[in-house]
């Protein structure tokens, strides 16, 4: 839906509502950037993993899914705003995807349940490989220059923080 609205607006939403690092005007991107995509291909690349990961998140109420999604979304955006390359515009759901991957992997450490351990194992097997994309192009030769490794890294860190927040006390 957002892709269509952005297309109607001549990509002005993508250009105005992405995360612009260390710019006060770019802070609103923390709210909107994960919903914005640069192309149909970008959207489709994020859609399937996002649907699967959200299904796993919301499939277990012990994960406190709404709180977890909020932490991942906002902290991932803030981290991207803090460490992102200057004069860049970060968009896309990969911030949330990387956050959900690390959350679902690490949450079993804190909840110590067999169900969480199974989910963590499945996520690690199917999505663990993407965690290499938290590395900058200098350390990851497969990373493209226009891909936000900063968003990936910030999302991954926010997911680990969210996993710690749902621990049993």
Automatic annotation (TrEMBL):
Keywords attached to this entry: Membrane, Transmembrane, Transmembrane helix
Principal cellular location given in the protein's record: membrane
GO molecular function (one): serine-type endopeptidase activity
Membrane topology: Multi-pass membrane protein
GO cellular component: a single term: membrane
Annotated localization: Membrane
Ranges of residues in domain Peptidase S54 rhomboid: 30-168
The UniProt record lists the keyword Nucleotide-binding: no
TM region positions: 40-59, 66-84, 90-111, 118-135
Keyword Glycosyltransferase recorded: no
Pfam families referenced in this protein's UniProt entry, alphabetically: Rhomboid
InterPro entries assigned: Peptidase_S54_rhomboid_dom, Rhomboid-like_sf
Annotated protein name in UniProt: Peptidase S54 rhomboid domain-containing protein
Species this chain originates from: marine metagenome
